[in-house]
Design a protein that fits this description.
By secondary structure, the protein is mainly α. The chain is built from 2 helices and no strands. The protein has a domain of about 55 residues.
Amino acid sequence: MSDAPEVNRPVVKPVRVVIAACLVAPFVAMLWVSSYARIEPTFIGIPFFYWYQMLWVVISTLLTMIAYKLWQRDQRAREAVRAEEGVAR
């Protein structure tokens, strides 16, 4: 029997991929400047360049909230599995 502690490696689950996508999407959208570096279409007189960025402030907030809630749910599920494994041993 080995005295080395058990090492639980992180598992890539679909929910974690969704979390990563939610957190990466705003960066990609803002760093791809050529996609929004124009004046038209305007929205209530505001050039596209500006209202597109302001729209991403709201979208980023929503995506971060979604990622956080998914992360919380994933952590609760992991804790439940650990608790069951602890009882089963």
